[in-house]
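step: validate -> pass
step: tokenize input -> pass
step: predict -> running
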Amino acid sequence: MKCPNCDKEMDNKTYCKMEGFYHWEDEETYYQKVEHEKFVCKSCKITYLDDEWKIPEKYNPTKKQEKTILFINNHLDMDIQPLTKHQCWLDIGKYFERAKRTPLHDDQYYIDAQQYYGMDESDFC
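step: predict -> pass
step: emit ->
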């Protein structure tokens, strides 16, 4: 797995742990072996643990970057996640000009016409 900040390969520190859970029907506590997926970047100290990123405060994106990524997502119908400042900077540089030229469009008429009249997208062009 690559670090979202520095694009270096992250160290794999996946581990197994015995976790207990209480079974309410027979009132017993059972233990099972659970594997936790963990990756750590040595240089940035960014951690990926079980589908969650733990990012130090200094690498978090600014409010302006988050709003710009939201603007890009809305205009280009994308799902870019703002994880780090560096990643936001790269994504903004890549997609911002195209997002500025793309107007927001209302798909509601298209969806209604398709549902009620059996039209497809070739009827709208």
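step: describe -> The beta strands are 11-12, 15-23, 28-36, 38-40, 47-49, 52-54.
step: cleanup -> pass
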